[in-house]
Specification:
With 294 residues, the protein is of the alpha+beta class. The chain folds into 2 domains: 162 residues, no CATH class; 73 residues, no CATH class. It contains 8 helices and 14 strands. Strand 5 and strand 6 form a beta hairpin. Helix 1 packs across helix 7. The relative contact order is 0.22.
């Protein structure tokens, strides 16, 4: 494994067409929206879930790249974090802990390190492992913001009809017809900002190879997460700013301002081609290089 020695900031653009990129359970699963501006939102948790799902599928069976926070719909398993911590202590450190038994205090640091080695998402995004057997807490090397749409979104609601009855004890007519609703975004281009800390990477063991896998996931994760509810979601741009030093050579916000996204149509946007994305490469500060991975 190659140590990560540079601070990295990145801009990630993805879009959705006729789908719900991230429903809000507190609002009847409507697409998330900034109530004051009308801009669409996708949480960092949602994006991290997709990264986890991609890695889980792409690296299935590799111990070093296992996923702690597994999705049951992907793995087909019910995973309990405390059980995974106990499993780690038994297999890696020789401690056979009973349910509700905590690890000795002098073993917690070793447990934390072992969890980072086992699980890709722990060393990447961090985790709270202080419950149950206790393997401490991990602050991940990769942090991401909410994604926010470039323009206002106007969610559309669609009535759903059922043509097949299920329960023979109820009348047929009571079980067919309009039975629900579905909300979609006609089109939205979203931008997310990310930060990768070389100093935190050193603590968790997040490597250059892990970074490559993370960027691979951002490029391809929507293709292993297809759903009728999410419509057509696509990764459109991944712009990476790599600093020459661990601490960085320029403020992240100044680098992000170099990326300009403008509409090229007077009508409602309905595709990525309705936008023009440019990078002011002439203004990139010394000590920083920029790369377009998508």
């Amino acid at each position: 494994m190659t140590d990560l020695k540079n601070r990295i900031d990145f801009v990630y653009l993805f879009d959705v067409q006729d789908g719900n990129p991230n429903g809000d359970p507190d609002a009847g699963n409507l697409p998330r929206v900034d109530s004051e501006t009308g801009m669409g939102l996708v949480t960092d948790i949602c994006l991290k879930r997709k990264v986890r799902n991609y890695v889980q599928i792409a690296k299935m069976g590799e111990t070093h790249n296992d996923i702690l926070v597994k999705s049951k719909e992907i793995s087909g398993q019910e995973v309990f974090i405390n059980g995974e911590i106990r499993k780690m202590y038994k297999e890696d450190l020789g401690l056979d802990l009973k349910v509700k038994e905590k690890a000795p205090a002098d073993k917690v640091a070793a447990g934390r390190e072992a969890m980072c080695k086992r699980f890709y998402d722990v060393r990447t995004f961090g985790a709270v492992l202080s419950t149950g057997p206790n393997a401490g807490q991990v602050r991940g090397a990769v942090q991401m913001t909410f994604a926010r749409s470039i323009d206002q979104i106007i969610p559309a609601e669609h009535a759903l009809t059922v043509c097949a009855a299920r329960d023979e004890e109820k009348s047929y007519d009571s079980q067919v017809g309009i039975q629900g609703r579905k909300a979609t975004v006609p089109y939205g281009l979203y931008v997310c900002h990310g930060f990768i800390s070389a100093s935190l990477a050193k603590q968790t063991g997040f490597s250059e190879e892990d970074l490559e896998l993370f960027f691979e996931a951002l490029k391809n994760m929507f293709d292993v997460d297809r759903s009728a509810a999410r419509g057509l979601m696509s990764a459109q741009k991944l712009i990476v700013f790599r600093h020459e030093s661990v601490l960085g050579n320029a403020p992240a916000n100044k680098l992000f301002d170099l990326v300009k996204i403008k509409k090229n149509t007077e009508t409602a946007t309905r595709s990525f081609s309705d936008y023009v994305v440019t990078i002011d490469k002439d203004s990139v500060p010394n000590g920083v290089t920029v790369e377009e991975l998508i």
